[in-house]
């Protein structure tokens, strides 16, 4: 790939998911320009061939396409400053690919602001953990209404996602992501509860793992989480703070749609408890600590 200004791609946000995604892009030959609020997160991507810059303005000056993988809408506001004096210069004649998980209404408003400033906008949130991001096995959900822009985005995502699912206009990709997350989060919280119950009943975690992975419930994500639980490994593949944010978005979306979401509501409380316990940076499976804390108060 020729790294002219038009073909370079900017990448904002090199967190738990953003860093491995950026690494896959640069290893696929994309001329990548990266920025992160904590600069040392750029180091592995730079070592792979990307160029790090000090400001978002420098990213925009050199890239016609900018991937945004910032933590939440507050970070996006702080970094891009929609409505601020420099916003139009950041997005005019550029494509913003929003790959983080944000409130659907926020995405709609941001799309309108980007378009008003002369830019293009696509939603492309992903489903999967850090391990899936490292393997290029994510599933991306794509929303927008310009076929040429969507095709351009899908081509770029080929190295980071095993599948790209068109969802319709903005914010349909984010609504799909929240629906998918509702299932994944409640399922894995149920796993944590089962392991916690097994602990109290004297069942070894390895034995529980053998039974669960020996039947029809077996899956790569179940195997990964059971392995982490058996080893007491809470290093983040999907961080608790991010899951707590997601459960809040899910329950809000459910309330607005008039949908019942009692499991998601319970999960939201449990993950908020885990954040309060200081576990926000741990893997989501560390929500078992919330259950252990509740059991200790019974």
TrEMBL record:
Positions of the 6-phosphogluconate dehydrogenase NADP-binding domain: 8-167
Keyword NAD among UniProt keywords: yes
Residue span(s) of domain 3-hydroxyisobutyrate dehydrogenase-like NAD-binding: 176-289
Name listed for the protein in its UniProt record: NAD(P)-dependent oxidoreductase
Record-stated family: Belongs to the HIBADH-related family.
Keyword Transcription regulation: no
InterPro entries reported for this sequence: 3-OH-isobutyrate_DH-rel_CS, 6-PGluconate_DH-like_C_sf, 6PGD_dom2, 6PGDH_NADP-bd, HIBADH-like_NADP-bd, HIBADH-related, HIBADH-related_NP60_sf, NAD(P)-bd_dom_sf
Protein keywords: NAD, Oxidoreductase
């Amino acid at each position: 790939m020729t790294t002219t200004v038009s073909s370079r791609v900017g990448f904002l946000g090199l967190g738990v998911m953003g860093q491995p995604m950026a690494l896959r892009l640069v290893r696929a030959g994309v001329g990548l320009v990266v920025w992160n609020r904590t600069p040392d997160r750029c180091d592995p991507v730079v070592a792979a061939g990307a160029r790090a810059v000090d400001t978002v303005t420098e990213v925009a000056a050199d890239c016609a396409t900018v991937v945004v993988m910032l933590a939440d809408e507050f970070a996006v506001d702080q970094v891009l400053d929609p409505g601020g004096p420099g916003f139009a210069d950041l997005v005019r004649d550029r494509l913003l690919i929003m790959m983080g998980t944000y409130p659907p209404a926020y995405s709609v408003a941001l799309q309108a602001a980007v378009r008003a400033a002369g830019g293009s906008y696509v939603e492309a949130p992903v489903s999967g953990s850090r391990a899936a991001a490292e393997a290029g096995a994510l599933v991306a959900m794509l929303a927008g209404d310009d076929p040429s822009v969507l095709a351009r985005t899908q081509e770029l995502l080929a190295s980071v996602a095993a599948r790209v699912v068109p969802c319709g206009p903005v914010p349909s990709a984010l609504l799909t992501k929240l629906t998918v997350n509702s299932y994944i989060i409640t399922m894995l919280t149920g796993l944590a509860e089962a392991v916690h119950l097994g602990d109290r009943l004297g069942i070894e975690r390895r034995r529980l793992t053998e039974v669960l992975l020996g039947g029809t419930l077996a899956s790569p994500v179940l195997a990964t989480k059971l392995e982490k639980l058996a080893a007491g490994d809470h290093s983040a593949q999907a961080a608790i703070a991010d899951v707590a944010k997601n459960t809040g978005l899910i329950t809000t979306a459910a309330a607005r749609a008039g949908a019942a979401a009692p499991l998601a509501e319970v999960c939201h409380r449990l993950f908020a408890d885990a954040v309060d316990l200081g576990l926000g940076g741990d893997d989501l499976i560390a929500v078992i600590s919330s259950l252990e804390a509740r059991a200790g108060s019974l």
